[in-house]
Amino acid sequence: MKITKEIRTGVLVITGLVMTIFSFNYLKGINLFEKSRTFTVVYQNVEGLEPSNPVTISGYKIGKVQNINISNDGTNKLEIKLLIDNDVKFSKSSKAELYETGLIGGKAIAIIPNYDDKSIALDGDYLIGTIKPGFTELVNQRLSPLQEKLESAIKNADNVMLTINSVFDNETKNSIQESIRNFKNLSMSLNETTENLHSLISDNSNSIDKSLKNIELTSENLSVITENISEANIKDLINNINSTVTGFNSIINKVNDGEGSVSKFLENDAVFNNLENATLELEVLINDIKTNPNRYVHFSIFGKKPKKN
Questions:
Q1: pTM here?
Q2: Which element (helix H / strand E) includes 119?
Q3: Which of 28, 100, 184, 299 is most exposed, with the fewest beta carbons within 10 Å of its own?
């Protein structure tokens, strides 16, 4: 069979179209010769994520980001199409975690399987989207409280300085300076006093030595006196005192028992009454002598006898 020129031209055109479609899809991340699956993940923010960024599971690349679209529900959320080239299986409740691949800021998506769920994710399913805080975000989270505390500390320090400036006016500053000068003068006086005391001690060292020796001798004499007192016959003295106290107690007991004149004098009311009557009579006699002295005393210059009253 003779192949005409038109047939050759048609084959070339069809081959070109197939190659064009294959190349276009390959550049988009679609390999027509491999069995692939697509999944959708919704994020609020995917800063740094771009198409063809890797999709991994346990650190192993299993696909790539196919495209990024804005949802049509008015929430401006981002729908990410994930193209999985590998035939790895995971559950429908698995999470698609957006994370940073390094300090440069590259992004990737990691599939985190839920092994407790036995349902297998199929082509076209939605996965749960989560975002792992990156290094920059973690640093910001740590630095933000520190920054707030630092700003608060600076404000407090500023307030303290303002308070100090308001308290330490010119008069207060002058008073503080005067106090410092007085303290300096006091220190100088103490130094001079110390030097004078040192000189005094140095000049009177002999007298001080003699005084110390006298004190030592006095101490020795007191020790000797104490020893003599301790060696004295204190036992006999105590026995004599006890004997005297015993005799005195015996006398007191006899008085209490009514023995002797002293007891009769103290306990007999008749004696007391006689003494009281005698005292009264003596008082009457003295008054009568004062009133009528001629009755008891006879005295005359010429020898006449006084008249009888």
A1: 0.39
A2: none
A3: 299
